[in-house]
Design goal:
seven-stranded parallel beta sheet, 17% strand, binds NADP nicotinamide-adenine-dinucleotide phosphate, five-stranded parallel beta sheet, elongated, alpha/beta, 32% helix
Length: 308
């Protein structure tokens, strides 16, 4: 089988050696010089150029080199071929670590104390305990539910929001449009773990911020385009929001002149919450290739209508 491989990862060589070890007869064709498009059976890609995948007439499966598939559905000419995403327990664990750290930092007023340290100012603030802190998680999928359970285990008062109704032990579950308003009204720290789709783009904007209690804080680990950046700056300026931890941005790398870098109430990380790991993800790809070969159903296919 011939696999088109396109990545910008620093771990491209490790990816190739792991795939070759697990599927010795796989022919890996690296983009952009991948030879005859008519020979490609499978695509393992991150941000393929628009129109590329439709030029592969024998393509049987498109595999995203990440948990998200928004980078594929952005292509207006995406062919009607099954799309698989990575669901890797290691990545989910990494994300939960990141979210836990971010929520704890906001909960323990780290942004305030960092600012005070820069000013050499000694001042104490009232500190609630976790049980008195209401956290809301947007998206209760693989990542959101794992993060919600960990936050709950740390004692936080946790709610979550999804499209379809859920029943997760210990988590106050909300669904749909009306559920969102109810969850936001009780949320002091909001974590976005939604997929980016036409429905969720721009969800972290002025309207949503206004529905949160004054001084609420946000963590965005979904995608940069969930956030309306000017609305975040305005909400921080007015005091409607008290702080933000951001891992994803509309433009990545975040431009040097971007106001987020120096904002005293924003913590920035360079899209590192959960990185794709070839050692744990290559076996998932090998498994999918085996399924295609033997006509078995492939796991973790996305619904092209919902785009997640
Ligand atoms: N920053 C990073 O390093 C990083 C790493 C990995 C992933 N991510 C991001 O995390 C996202 C989530 O991944 P996942 O694996 O948890 O996805 P998932 O398993 O597909 O879960 C998505 C969740 O979002 C909910 N949802 C989707 N559209 C909605 C809508 N319109 N209204 C309400 N709820 C909606 C779904 O509701 P239902 O359950 O009702 O379907 C589901 O609970 C990825 O798409 C990616 O963007 C970021």
């Amino acid at each position: 089988m011939n696999l088109l491989f396109k990545t910008s990862s620093l771990k491209a060589t490790l990816w190739q050696s792991e795939l070759q070890r697990l599927v010795p007869d796989l022919v890996i064709r690296k983009w952009p010089d991948f030879g005859d498009p008519g020979e490609i059976d499978l695509a393992l890609v991150w941000r393929p150029p628009h129109g590329l995948l439709k030029t592969l007439p024998k393509l049987k499966l498109i595999m995203s080199l990440g948990a998200g598939v928004d980078h594929l559905f952005e292509d207006p000419e995406l062919p009607r071929v099954p799309v698989m995403r990575l669901v890797d327990p290691r990545m989910i664990g990494e994300m939960t670590e990141y979210v836990t750290l971010a929520v704890l930092r906001l909960h323990r007023l780290d942004l305030t104390y960092l600012e005070q340290q820069r000013e050499r100012r000694w001042a104490e603030h009232i500190q609630p305990v976790a049980a008195e802190r209401r956290v809301g998680v947007l998206g209760l999928g693989q990542y959101g539910s794992d993060a919600a359970f960990r936050l709950k285990s740390l004692g936080f008062d946790v709610a979550g929001w999804s499209r379809s109704p859920k029943n997760l032990p210990g988590i106050a579950c909300y669904a749909g449009e009306s559920g969102l308003a109810a969850m936001l009204a009780r949320t002091e720290i909001l974590v976005c773990l939604l997929p980016l789709t036409p429905e969720t783009e721009g969800i972290l904007g002025a309207g949503l911020f206004a529905a949160l209690p004054r001084g609420a804080m946000i963590v965005n680990v979904g995608r940069g385009r969930h956030l309306v950046e000017v609305d975040l700056l305005a909400a921080l300026e007015s005091g409607q929001l008290g702080g933000a931890v951001l891992d994803v941005f509309r433009e990545e790398p975040l431009p040097e002149a971007h106001p987020f870098w120096r904002h005293p109430h924003i913590l920035v990380t360079p899209h590192v919450a959960a990185a794709t790991n070839p050692l744990t993800c290559a076996p998932l790809i090998a498994e999918a290739i085996g399924c295609i070969r033997h006509g078995r159903p492939v796991a973790n296919l996305v619904d092209p209508e919902r785009q997640y």
